[in-house]
Amino acid sequence: MELVALGTETHSSIICTSDHNSVMGFKPAVGLTSRAGVIPMTPRLDTVGPICRTVSDAVSVLDVIAGISASQLSIFILFKEERCRVIDNLKIDDVETILEPNHSGEVSIMMAEFKAAINIYLKELVESPVWSLVDIIAFNESNAELEKLTEYDHHTFIAAQKTDDLGEHEKTILEKLENLSCNGFEKLMKENELDAVVIPGTCACPIFAFGGSPAITGPVGYATDGCRLESVLGD
C-alpha cells in the first residue's frame, strides 16, 4: 500500500476519491501548489494536493509541494489552549444554484475553458501524437477499441470542442459564478468570522470549487452497519 499520492482536483476528484476510500484527502487553495506539467481542465479551478492515510502525512507532503512551513497551515492546527467557538446550522445564500452546476452555468464555462487550456497545454509539448483537442477526438475514434469508447465514451471532449471561445456570454457566466462565491461561501466565512466549516459527506465540493477554496476530507468512523461516516472541512 502506498503511503501518499498526489491528486488533481477541478471539482471533486481529490475529495470524492479520498472519501470513497476512507483516507485523508486535501484539496489546497487554487494557486498554493504548482500545476506545471499537469493536464488542465480549467486553470481557474485546477489544483494539486495530497491523498494520504493521516493528517500529519498530508501536512508533510503539502510542506514539500507548496514549499512552505507546515506551521503555516492553520487548517491543521489543533486548538489546545484557545477556546473554540462553534456555530451550528449556518446557511449559504443561493446554495441550491451553486450545488447544481448545470443551472449555475459552471458546466458550460468549464467546457469552454477546457478547450482553450488543453490546446495550449498540447502545443507546449515537445513530442506528442496529438496537438489539439480535435486531434484527441480523432485519435480516440481511430482507436476506439484501444481507448474503450464503448465503455467510457468521450462526450466531454466533444462537448468542449463544440464551444466557442471565451466571449461576452462566457464572461457573463464567469461574473455570475464569482458573485455566487462572494455572496455565498465567502460571505458566510467573513460575516461569522469563521476559520473553517465542517460539512458531512462530499456534497459541498461545488461550493469549494467555485471560489478556489481549500478543503480536506477524512473518515471519522463507521456506523453499526459498516457504512462510512465522513466529514469535509472547508476553509
UniProtKB/TrEMBL annotation:
**Stretches assigned to the Amidase domain:** 3-71
Q: Which gene encodes it?
A: LOC105169916
Q: Which Gene3D superfamilies match?
A: Amidase signature (AS) domain (3.90.1300.10)
What organism, scientifically named, is this protein from? Sesamum indicum
Cited Pfam families: Amidase
Q: Please give the name of this protein.
A: Amidase ARB_02965
Highest taxon, organism lineage:
Eukaryota
